[in-house]
Design a protein that fits this description.
The complex is a heterodimer of chains A (172) and B (180). Chain A has two domains: 30 residues; 138 residues, 3-Layer(aba) Sandwich (Glutaredoxin). A seven-stranded mixed beta sheet of chain A has the order 2-1-5-4-3-6-7. With 172 residues, chain A is α/β, with parallel strands linked by helices. Chain A contains five helices and seven strands. Chain A is elongated and about 75 Å long. The termini of chain A are far apart. Chain A is 38% helix and 21% strand. Chain B is of the alpha/beta class and 180 residues long. Chain B has one domain: Glutaredoxin. Chain B is built from seven helices and eight strands, in the order αββββααβαβαββαα. Chain B has a seven-stranded mixed beta sheet. Chain B is elongated. Chain B starts with a helix and ends in a 6-residue tail after the last helix. Classes of the chains: A alpha/beta (172), B alpha/beta (180). At the A-B interface, α1 and β7 of A face α1, β1 and α2 of B. β7 of chain A pairs parallel with β1 of chain B, so a sheet runs across the interface.
Chain lengths: 172, 180
């Protein structure tokens, strides 16, 4: 192999790597939320206090579940209603539940009655950052702000698994 | 020069394949709850055609015609994204003998949003279809073949995330040519 051919091969490999990275659907999305990676940081307004809450930093030291909600989704409503029964127990074990809502009038009317902590995301910044393309979507996040579980969907049987995962994160 | 071109193509193929395999192994792990499996018979449900008010028995009344059911609610941003993405393919679907139905609880907001989109809308106020099709999140799309079997399901913004996949699926289901 001549030096020119070898040089050409190196350039070709570099170009190939660049093209493959750029063309691959998952390539340029460096900050995809994923299990084992830090939760993407985002600041949202708290429905009750109207104060900005920074995720995940404001929860540093406390594990929590980030639940992406839409009133229009029947499974979302089922999830939020079922979680009312687990919330007190989880909070006593130092595990927080945080609902991220699209912020429509229907969302707020419904969520306001549940007593959950609600963060508003009317312009879908958090939905976009966490790549939420279907609801409900739940991220269990540990005390270091790392995503430990990513779940799409909710059935009547999901509560047990949800609580088990939460308690695993609470355990030292 | 010819040798260089061959080397370049080979390098592209090798690196591209390696990268794809690497990304496949390191893909984010997401647990998904519920849903139907490919090959299962599509559950039989009776819904209401929003345009005529008449009952529609799915998939029985569509025997021989492939279709998709998009489970939707207007109050869900991701669902609206999916409808907007699918809308562009409606004419092509029709020409291929394929129907894209939107299944919705049928609130006033749902109907007002869907009316100008051109989709045939099936009303499911009791949640019968949502439950029978194991819909644990929305948007959720179920493709059904001519025999009434589930061909595949798709999650979230299928059209926006992978526009090719939706068209390929419809092509598979319609035999690649026009409708019957």
């Amino acid at each position: 192999m001549t030096r020119a051919t070898a040089g050409l091969l190196v350039v070709a490999l570099l170009l190939g790597a660049l093209a493959a990275y750029g063309l691959h659907p998952a390539g340029p999305k460096r900050d995809l939320p994923a299990v084992g990676k830090p939760a993407p940081p985002v600041a949202l307004e708290d429905l009750a206090t109207r104060e900005k809450v920074s995720l995940p930093t404001d929860f540093q030291g406390r594990p929590f579940a980030l639940i992406f909600f839409s009133h229009g989704s029947p499974p979302s409503r089922e999830q939020v209603l079922q979680l009312r029964y687990a919330r007190r127990e989880l909070e006593e074990r130092v595990f927080d539940l945080v609902i991220v809502s699209e912020g429509t009038v229907d969302d707020l009317a419904f969520l306001g009655r549940t007593g959950h902590r609600v963060l508003l995301d009317p312009d879908h910044r958090a939905f976009t950052l966490y790549r939420v393309t279907a609801v409900p979507r739940t991220f269990h996040i540990d005390r270091m702000g790392v995503i430990r579980k990513d779940t799409l969907g909710w059935t009547r049987n999901s509560l047990k698994q949800f609580v088990e995962t939460a308690l695993e994160l609470v355990a030292p | 020069m010819r040798k260089a071109t061959i080397l370049l193509i080979l390098a592209l193929v090798v690196v591209g394949a390696t990268w794809t395999v690497f990304r496949w192994y390191t893909a984010p792990q997401r647990a998904q709850v519920g849903g139907l499996e490919a090959g299962q018979p599509a559950p039989v449900v009776t819904l209401t055609d929003a345009a005529t008010g008449l009952p529609v028995r799915i998939p029985t009344e569509l025997a021989g015609r492939p279709f998709l059911l998009l489970f939707f609610s207007q109050g869900c941003h991701a669902c609206r994204q999916e409808v907007e993405g699918l809308k562009a393919h409606l004419t092509e679907f029709g020409e291929r003998g394929f129907t894209a139905f939107v299944v919705t609880p049928g609130t006033r907001a749902d109907l007002e949003y869907l009316a100008p989109t051109g989709f045939p809308v099936l009303l499911d106020p009791s949640g019968e279809a949502f439950s029978a099709y194991g819909v644990t999140f929305i948007p959720h799309t179920v493709f059904v073949d001519r025999a009434g079997l589930v061909h595949r399901t798709m999650t979230g913004w299928s059209v926006k995330e992978s526009p090719g996949a939706v068209r390929e699926t419809v092509t598979d289901l319609t035999g690649g040519g026009g409708g019957q």
